Records
---
Amino acid sequence: MTSPSPRPRGKMVNGFDPEASGDLPPRDRAMIERRARLLGPAYRLFYETPVQVSRGRGVHLYDADGNEYLDAYNNVVSVGHANPRVAAAVAAQMGTLCTHTRYLQDGILDYAEDLLSTFGGRIGETGHAMFTCTGSEANDLAVRMARHCTGKRGIIVTAEAYHGTTALTASFSPSLGVSSPLGPWVRQVPAPDSYRLPPAEAGRRMAAAVQAAIDDLTRHGDGVAAFIADSLFSSDGIFAHPTDVLAPVAEVVRRAGGLYIADEVQAGFTRSGERFWGFQRHGVDPDIVTMGKPMGNGYPVAGLAVVPEVVERFGREIRYFNTFGGNSVAMAAARETLAVIREEKLMENGAKVGAFIRDGLTGLMKRHPGIGQVRGTGLYIGVEMVKDPASKEPDGAAAAALVNALRRRRVLISATGYFGNVLKIRPPLVFGQADAERLLTEMEAALDEAKG
Amino acid sequence: MTSPSPRPRGKMVNGFDPEASGDLPPRDRAMIERRARLLGPAYRLFYETPVQVSRGRGVHLYDADGNEYLDAYNNVVSVGHANPRVAAAVAAQMGTLCTHTRYLQDGILDYAEDLLSTFGGRIGETGHAMFTCTGSEANDLAVRMARHCTGKRGIIVTAEAYHGTTALTASFSPSLGVSSPLGPWVRQVPAPDSYRLPPAEAGRRMAAAVQAAIDDLTRHGDGVAAFIADSLFSSDGIFAHPTDVLAPVAEVVRRAGGLYIADEVQAGFTRSGERFWGFQRHGVDPDIVTMGKPMGNGYPVAGLAVVPEVVERFGREIRYFNTFGGNSVAMAAARETLAVIREEKLMENGAKVGAFIRDGLTGLMKRHPGIGQVRGTGLYIGVEMVKDPASKEPDGAAAAALVNALRRRRVLISATGYFGNVLKIRPPLVFGQADAERLLTEMEAALDEAKG
């Protein structure tokens, strides 16, 4: 790889720069100033020109003037913005009961049973479900349990991983940037960059890097509690293939007495278009699976599934209670979201529409050599922008320009990866053929515009 | 204090013992077995005989057979179970838009402005609001920011504090029991036990204990990042008075360069019946205020308010994003809950009904010397059960027997404190005069029954 100019590490990909707000319409500028005053400096907006939203429906968002945006970014609302079935289920349960898990209720048990049936492997056989409100809480709890179970401290992640925003999960989320310190018991391994490395070697290389990390953790007295990864490597740049990478890694981790945690916050709930869970594409049998974002189509519900032996001592000695986790309404939202995913065959839709989008984007490569690679699976698509397809030098500026050009055309996507040079296309799972065509049309126009 | 028999530290107060499930009705036993299979060993139920719930309304819960329970325990549903106004606000917003904070939206700004107006002090002047999904996340973020701001690590809490269930917050929550290790940078100070110590000395003693903890943390190289407390000392045993305790503590902490974090998850949103926030009763001006449970009447919404200088560098260097935190529906739920609290004058109701309950309970002391003290404020009431009012020896067994006797009479309360001997009465804020009378009638009957 040639010398790239990485994005400033304290800044986020596709973040709005308040210093550059001079050109905004007065209404937006006033709103941004009010926001800075009320919410403070830790909050960030997307895009050079932030998007104001007033309502949503399906794959569309609308601003106060009624302008329509095509949402090709938000995976949380996987069954569509303001999905009427989920809204009705939440409304009905809110009008009936919303309470916690220290009383007996059927809803949580029905959902847990249904959810556990999706896993297969050891979790499918005898696993338990536990509920939190956010993916961060799920990963935090997973690592707490992994440490309690193994008696070890070390955590191994990919180089640009993101696993959450609690103190613990932030400490093994290198993508938060250099100002956010990693724990001394954290080791990073390169993600399987299928664009730059021979795909046939990816599994062997990653397993070797994980073994080296384990050895180093052991040498430092921490040992390995867990390896945790998102099988789509979303924040590393979206590497959905090859799918024979994580099984050898799991083997190495298990041999050292560590646990394999599959972080399915991004890849789960059929996002890949191929399997219900991302780890299933790699043929691994995880000890813990964490989940979140799309689970309740926007209602704050998340959780994990775990093999009994990992939670046995933790459950006896520590117990777990999360006031809102697994509450009656959360379970109703999750149940209805899962029903819609199944009944509307959204996995099949994602496979078909995702392939159509990737084909269309691939077709643009000849006229647009800045597109280094089109990759992904289902409706999780990455487009790597480079300065030159021969050198493969990352082009974060080109990606940022495209993201903002599309935003001006009212199509919402973002970017990811260490250099921020990989377009991230990750729409609601109800994204249809016509939506894909609109996306491709606008993408082509944006690329042409950039060419000048 | 004479030699008490503390409850087993791995067990919770008022937890159901699955070993003792033999006497339960077959339907409940089957449900409990199903629950153990699906949710695993970390989940606990309340009561010797768990309560099954199917619906709720106002201060009442109902089981599948239509039996009515008087809820004198659940503070989350502060404006009442299945409050129709909050349910309608959530339903309307779910049908319109539910998205995150990286787009411009009015709802979050309107709510933040309204919320910040309740604080007074420095936060009221120029503070910022930040939103999470749970009180645990709020406390986790508060301590992350406190450490980033001060460059110190030490955290000082009360002896039986509870501040959350993330890895970080659990590590400064001694009430989770001895199996859950405290961080090496945590120091505990005794709560102001107004039953056993001269109230006039409480502030001086606590400030001295905090100073000693600061000195010890400094000696160990950690220094003090923050003191954090719930001003009602709920998990320590509910000590609502005296109210001149925390100002001298804040003074000592600030002099050492540490921050004062007011954990208002329990005491906030008018629970005390006297002020909107619990810390206001002590006249302190906190650096960070965290909040949760009743904020959205059961919808998972929580957050914090912070003075600008504490979040300034954190905001610039780290940023903060919580996918579901501050989402459109969370803000609608919180806004409507706050409106109901104000419009139905629930603070005034809590003051009046709470005083009536405390008077009634105090009236029972003569015939029932096991009641050592009745205390609290508003609708947060503690009843300390002792073996003998002279020795003040804690009687956890008597408290447990009363909690379960009331449960048989379909009145729900719980217990708290290190010895589990303090009855915890903490109903929805819509608890009325007739509800209070029913509670007192059943309490008297349960006490008489225990006397035999």
Note: Residues 1-5 of chain A have pLDDT under 50 and may be disordered.
---
Amino acid sequence: MNTTAEQMAAEPDSGGPARIAVDISGGDVPLVERMAGAFEAVEMYRDVSLLLCGPADKLSEATQTIGAETDRTRIVDCPSEIGMHESPIQALRQKPDSSIAKGVQLLAEGKADAFVSAGNTGAVAAAAILKLGRSEGVHRPGIAAPMKVIDFPVVAIDVGANVDCKPINLLQYGIMASVFAEELLNIPNPRVGLLNIGEEINKGNELSKQSFELLESSKLNFIGNVEPKVLFHHGCDVLVCDGFVGNIVLKFSESLVLRLVEWIRAGVQDRFRYKLGIGLCKSLFSHLRHCADFTEYGGAPLLGVNGVVIITHGATDAYGIRNAVREARSFVQNHVGEHIAKAIRDDAYARSAAD
Amino acid sequence: MNTTAEQMAAEPDSGGPARIAVDISGGDVPLVERMAGAFEAVEMYRDVSLLLCGPADKLSEATQTIGAETDRTRIVDCPSEIGMHESPIQALRQKPDSSIAKGVQLLAEGKADAFVSAGNTGAVAAAAILKLGRSEGVHRPGIAAPMKVIDFPVVAIDVGANVDCKPINLLQYGIMASVFAEELLNIPNPRVGLLNIGEEINKGNELSKQSFELLESSKLNFIGNVEPKVLFHHGCDVLVCDGFVGNIVLKFSESLVLRLVEWIRAGVQDRFRYKLGIGLCKSLFSHLRHCADFTEYGGAPLLGVNGVVIITHGATDAYGIRNAVREARSFVQNHVGEHIAKAIRDDAYARSAAD
């Protein structure tokens, strides 16, 4: 159950080479750091080739700085950049030569098998839905975030693609994330929980109550409503929620952990004994930031579109890019998209329900 | 701005004696602990008298154990108890002699000025709404949780009374919690933020977008959408959200902090140097549990009902009971309920909107 990045990296290839477009621009991390991650990835995965999307001049410069040489990377010039706070639809219209627009276009044209981006989440999702289209039978694609909670993986879905969900969306999120958890995180028969304010049946808002019924009548290994504490004690593998709630919870956890780290750091300055004490625990606390970590398993795939799209955190560094490339490669080689389409087809309600 | 429990305790009486009904049964803490808190409270606040609600035999026994003697406490026999997971409406119907039903009844009959309970939140809220009724003009009462975030107070509303909110509800929550923050936490002109997944206008779900407009056109000191990180950097004083989201966020924060404390404790066992290190930082870490603390300022009042009802955490100990009594006393003596009713009357939209 305790799948680590290393275990996943060691898994045998189950398919052919994977052509992965990687968005190098955007986000909160220097471009050269992202490039370093990309080169590390091609070094580690010999069956991967990368299409590096970003401003060609800067990418060439970074290549020289790093001193990397490989015939499995190619630069795709994307001179303009979509900012993190730009309105997605408008930005995509105004910047067809941005890394997000061109990266997704490469997928749409069959020139790449997957796209990885740490850029504006809304823009990536919008471009994917518009250019690739939804998978057959899927009402609303959802973003699945594989989080490392303390020591184990939990896949939260949706974390921001769809902020006004209907019950059918939550059912399909459960189905899609279960396939993802099983295929990519090696979790057999994943336990699916519905994030709620209480564990009893009939708890929660209208969406919860109706979604509960749908999930219960599905073929999923549905364990019922789960309160947040369940998550921290490894009580479920897939956590289904509305995209508004999922996004808030994700940001809340991240902010709380960051603030605690800041707070400990500041407190340490107050007294010498604190400094000494924290020094002794350094290796213990280096894990603290990873208690709710979103880079260990790569990035968050947008499930339910016709193509492999992985969205990573804006602060994704070289390690994160490497893991996201590994994840994209596994996604492609294990044909996860086809398994998801089959699972949607196999669930009578998920298939038939009107949007 | 940095209002502590001590400062609040020291504030001069602004009204007459306060008769406060305290629910001693229920929750996750031994009855004698709650009784000790109640006796500490009457000792500290000479203008307070308490009606202790719970099974008379056990309460008498606890009184003898503690050895307390005062003519300002009286036991109100409430032989039955509503469990934390019982269905509120059904439990209230079946157990009219429970501490929750009788405590609220004392308020309804004018025999008490306030009711404090650590019991089943849904049952307390339902009893209050049914027996006391909503304040004039209030569509849906909301639970306001005054949290200590790192070092400062933030009032989150609603944290669970109303899980399917309309925009008018969120507007009224902002108005009611602003009065509460100003009157009881001494925060002048509180900054009201709308919890959202982004700071830009037009972010979020339908509820967010419509609520934003209402809040912006109100007389509140509305600062716009706030993301979770804003909360941890003291960017707002009142955090408005839907009761479903508020409840999830509250439980998520609590679980995460508890889990981190557990995790540090377990990690410490691994190596002697960790034990030594944490030992040196003991006083620093004793604060960790209070980074998102819900007992420092007392409990969470149900705002918008005709009466003072304070709901405290199920794990409320003697210290928490004392603070909740202090809070109830201030609420009564400062006529916060009347100020809230006036604020609702003064806001044209809040008054006129149809439910």
Note: The longest strand of chain A covers residues 142-149.
---
Amino acid sequence: MIFRQLFEEDSSTYTYLLACEETGECVLIDPVIDTAERDLATLNDLGLNLTYTLETHIHADHLTGALKLKALTNSQIVVPAMDELPCADLGVQEGTAFKVGNIELHPLFTPGHTGTHHAYLLDNGMQHVLFTGDALLIEACGRTDFQSGDAVKLYKSITEKFFTLPDETLVYPAHDYEGRQITTIGQEKNRNPRVGDNRPQDEFVDIMHGLDLPYPRKIDFAVPGNELCGQCPDDVPEEYRGPCDTISLPMTEKRLRKSGDQG
Amino acid sequence: MIFRQLFEEDSSTYTYLLACEETGECVLIDPVIDTAERDLATLNDLGLNLTYTLETHIHADHLTGALKLKALTNSQIVVPAMDELPCADLGVQEGTAFKVGNIELHPLFTPGHTGTHHAYLLDNGMQHVLFTGDALLIEACGRTDFQSGDAVKLYKSITEKFFTLPDETLVYPAHDYEGRQITTIGQEKNRNPRVGDNRPQDEFVDIMHGLDLPYPRKIDFAVPGNELCGQCPDDVPEEYRGPCDTISLPMTEKRLRKSGDQG
């Protein structure tokens, strides 16, 4: 398996590249529209063509690169099935492995940060690697104050779905804001200040309800844009338009061609 | 590959178990005498027989479990060749991979914590995993004030041998004192408070020389004992004798038998 951890600075997002060496199939988990070209250059350097993009959830802090990458590579857009996004090509759900060549990713329904959040577990008997999305971060977790967030559900997702995995399980989160890259299940069970050290649910809920976080910068255009798999809505503020403008032409051409309306 | 990260509480030491699934051969990196039985129980649960013990360096903070494990399982004792320990069965050196079945561990001569310290890199093209011993710890590093320690050499070991590896390289240290289990090369390049963020050598040396650490509790018996691969010297203080007493009988029997002096 080829693996790369890629970082998008503006939203501190980690995008993960996994590729099956035997078949050449590959996936980008949580790609960001701003770094779509960088991601494609990385794939190109590795001699890979993008097969899939895969979302953990509908993001509020960045636009997904899914639609832009599909426009540029014809990759398939994969999202949690319960998101019911008409723009997606495939839906995944807990209980059915999503296969990227010989790599099996097991979707784990882990609501709490959003109502339909999923994590992805790679467990081939030898390696235990968990992509936690925004549900569990390094010594932190995703906020629960918007998008059907629910602190009780997040507590159950973390303690019942994640903390029951082997302690050595490598944890790759969707974000880190302090230059960290990785943690493990054991490390978070020991050290996570919100949910580690067997903290009870009611204390976790009190912590989450007391965070008093600022309103997300990009949520007003990111959520509707991501419900369209990364389409740039018309109301993207000027300072965030850049990555949208660069895709408008190929996307429009491709989509019109595909729809048969023109050309 | 089977992998386990095992912890010895008194010295906060991580012992690593690696086993080749194809051949059943396995190694314990930096086993501790106090937890030798626990390690063997883990191996037993996995259906494995111990093939090798492998040391990163001559420890000052615990007695190695190498000799005890050899007495109990007939495992071979592997150490850096430049340690020139007559008690060892095999010596490893940089430039020659040490093979445990199909697992190749590449020794990296990384002096500074001790004069002959080695790290071990597992790099099969797909996985990059580095066992750093005491040279690089999570947001820390080994001390340099005894056993031919040298802050300039440690700086070069970390920046020239470790920080030139891919950022995604998983870093498993020989110790953590705060419940952490893992880091990466990229994370330490970013965040290590002593050597990260491109800190220059002279500043690192000043930090190391200013640490003013207490005299190690076990050094007076651990170093001579580890120069005998984990033989308990007569002057082990009573409070640390426990794991020594439990091995004296089988070790003596075995060694006498092997030497042909008796029985």
Note: The two ends of chain A are 40 Å apart (CA to CA).
